[in-house]
Amino acid sequence: MAAFLLGRSDLALLSNLVGVLLIVSGFIALIPIVVCLAFGESFAIPGFLLTFILSVTLGACLYVPFRQEGEIHLKHGMLAAALAWIVIPLLGAVPFVLVGNAIPPGSSLVCRMDPMEGFFESMSGWTTTGLTMVDNEALLPASLQFWRSLTQWVGGVGVVVLSLAILARPGSGAFSLYVGEARTDKLRPRVVGTARTMLRIYLVYTCFAAVTFCLLGMPVWDSLNHAMTVLPTGGFSVRDNSIQDYGNIWVEIAVMVFMMIGAISFVVHADMFRRRLRSLWQDAQNRALLLLVVFGAVVLTAELVSGGPTFGSLTRSARLASFQFVSALSTTGFQTTDLRNWTPPAKILLSLAMIAGGAAGSTAGGIKLIRLILVTKGVHWEFLRTFLPKEVYVPKRVGRLTMEDREFSGIVLEAAAFSFVYLVLLVVGVLVLMSVLGSVSVVDVFFEVCSAQGTTGLSVGLVGPSMPDVAKLMLIINMYTGRLEIFPVLMLLQAFFASLHIRRRASPTP
Asked: Which parts of 295-377 are beta strand (E)?
């Protein structure tokens, strides 16, 4: 299979698909120029123009020669998505590097990034992670603040979904690309209709969030940026201490609501827009999400009261615990407190929430609740099968669906395989960071890796410009694989190494 994928015709198909995505991402880089003009940051314009030129030129070179190539299959879409999600963040790093170095002397603005830090920041943005190389977000140029928010907003809905919604039909590989970007739900019979419906829902919620934050006392600029990063469960902020800086319980409640909205599947949102409100509770993932929020908030509150730092009253502890658990489970990453002082059990509980993540079909990261539900039910039914007589039939129900044994076994196996590979990559990340960071707490390293691979952005202070490049690169890999849900990345690696093997066998022996 891998050899076929790297054949000449297949490379042409991949070139076609990746080219389209690069062209779209290039035009996205023009949007912050409006902010540059509005805030008088003319020094930032060349960085965004160069990103536009590089993206569109490279995209055109890949797309134009191969417009009429053959039939596109699912594997092509998955490979194209895996490739695009490397190249787009690489090009998206250009503004972080160039704009920071172009800030006029004597300015109060600060942003100095080397290429590795710029790539880290860009990957964190496009994958909606929220871990950052910036020490003082409030001192960033407004254009870079907006660029960070914009990459998370586009990354949340997906470059592929945005491309399908705008271009209507970028070739016969529409569905293949859609699945390759870790999306499977269909809200309409056609994929293009699904993409447009998702984009409309996304826009409505973003506007609603911005207006709500404004009415609750958040400045207009802050409201816009936080609305763009809360719906994609991204977590980038324009404040140094994230949501903590506002000290406003109503803002925190509103942010929690929109984080939960971001963690709910677009299918459920589409049903709610059609006034099918019962689907909010009928959906198995939503029930699990709500129950986990209640359970996690209670347990975390108890831990903060019994063994954590002094937060004052029980009410104060419950306020912090509820916000941080929702932020972790929705994989958003906003913070209302310094997590460095929290106890190891509290950090582990948040880490487990980041591993679980939100609903499949949402903008959240993590393993996804539906996979955990399937694996749990699979273990339960296997246990029943062991003790019940063979003639007793146990129906396999997940939510409102009833499945045959073979179908159920297949999806449980797939969920278990994904979860296993996810945890293996998590362990690799922990081992790499432990080896290069020196004497740091295992719990803290585990927390940061869970945050990166779950595309969350919560941090206990290990992530920053002072990290060794090896650690930065490892977390970039965790963010990348977490956003694409691993299998497209594994397929890309398989194709790459198979190609090397074939070339070695084809080369003449001296």
From this structure: none
**403: helix, strand or coil:** strand
**Spatial distance between the Cα atoms of 49 and 29, rounded to a whole number of angstroms:** 7
Give the Cα separation of 331 and 129 in Å (integer). Answer: 8
Q: 178 vs 20, 162, 185, 320, 340, CA distance in Å?
A: 13, 10, 9, 37, 39
What total number of domains does the chain contain?
1
Any bridge partners for residue 402, and if so which? Answer: 397
User: Domain residues for 96?
Assistant: 1-183
Round to whole Å and give the CA distance between 510 and 508: 6
Residue 163 located in a structural domain = yes
Cα 423 to its chain centre, rounded Å, is 17
| Closest listed residue to residue 126, CA positions, set 98, 165, 93, 78 | 93
Please write the tens of the pLDDT for every residue from 219-266.
999 999 999 999 999 999 999 999 999 999 999 999 999 999 999 988
Closest to 159 in 3D by CA, of 40, 284, 25? 25
Contacts of 330 (CB under 8 A, 6+ apart): 233, 259, 260, 262, 263, 358, 364
**Which whole-number Å values give the CA distances from 77 to 16, 152, 266, 356, in the listed order?**
11, 22, 21, 26
Does some domain include residue 171? yes
| CA pair distance 203, 379, nearest whole angstrom | 40
- Could you read off the pLDDT of 283-328 as tens digits, one per residue? 888 999 999 999 999 999 999 888 755 666 788 899 999 999 999 9
Q: How far apart are CA 295 and CA 374, in angstroms?
A: 20
Identify whether 251 is part of a domain: no
Give the tens place of pLDDT for each residue, 353-375. Answer: 999 999 988 889 999 998 998 89
- Residue 238 C-alpha from the chain's centroid: 19
Helix pair angle (405-437, 344-356), 10° resolution = 140
d(CA 381, CA 358): 24
Roughly how many angstroms between the first and final C-alpha of the chain, as a whole number? 29
Tokens of residue 131, six digits: 């871990």
Buried b (16+ CB within 10 A) or exposed e, 308-345: beebeeeeebbbbbbbbbbbbbbbbbbbbbebeebeeb
Contact predicate 458/350, CB 8 Å: yes
Looking at the domain assignment, is residue 495 inside a domain? Answer: no
